[in-house]
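We close this part of the discussion by returning to an individual protein. The sequence in question and its structure tokens are set out directly beneath this paragraph:
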Amino acid sequence: MADFAQQYPYLILVNSLIPALLAGNTVILKPSPQTPTIVERVAKVFSDAGLPEGVLQYFHCGTPSMIETIVKNPKIALVCFTGSVAGGLAVQKAAASRIVNVGLELGGKDSAYVRGDVDIDWAAEEIVDGAIFNSGQSCCSIERVYVDHGIHDEFVGAVQKVLAGYRMGDPLDPSTHVGPVISKKSKETIERHIKDAVEKGAVDATPHNNTFANLSTRGNFVKPTLLTGVTHDMMVMLEETFGPVIPVMKVPDDETALEQMNDSEFGLTASIWTKDVDRGYELADKVEAGTVFVNRCDYPSPVSPLLCRFCPSSLNRWLLT
């Protein structure tokens, strides 16, 4: 878990970088200001491997005006952006002045629906991992969980059991499950969502865990938090939290679950958890999200049709941000 968290910025980058290079393109990378050295290390690896000079370049930039200038450059034939909705809208606006392909992978408020026929212990373990891995800092992290009323209490108990076994601490320690979040600003956002939910009637159902209770003052640690009794008037169910929070909401049937899952302006990924796989696929077809999984979450596939967008017929220069 800790090793995966350390590699996460690299994994996000290669999703776009490798297909671009394989298709014969030259690439310019712009890293997040929160992980600025990632692109330098990646560029060195490719240089050491013999990639011709100039094929892979990078630049550091924190100003919207400079990004806009790059995006508008006619030598840029495709822009691929991974980040916030606000950032994606800025890139799209900059690209609107000319004809250029733009691929945006933005924030999510990814939902999961746990049907009454599911293997509860297995689903609880998978969903906790889907919500908490990388300290919840993934656009595809599970951020909303809808559970059939008949198994709600048992499912919550199973989630508590899983969380009780997690270890929070030094992200460089291989035994650690959950490390700190990226910044003080992120920590404050996550804690604000939790506070808002509790003030509006949600229950903090997080189990006792010594590693959650004794958080280090070095680093932006936020304890993994299980919330029950949540509603759609709480920020934690409406806005991207991007942290280790699992809000669980009880639903009476499939139709209500679908209604609640689709009640969001974010539509990145979602998941259906059930032993009835055929019914799972039926429900998946009705979920308004770009990728809907059945009995798994945040699983990249090398045969995804999304990769087709990385196969232009001519050699291009790409801007990957």
User: Anything to note?
Assistant: The radius of gyration is 21 Å. Residues 27 and 245 are 36 Å apart (CA to CA). Residues 1-5, 305-319 have pLDDT under 50 and may be disordered. The chain has eleven helices and twelve strands.
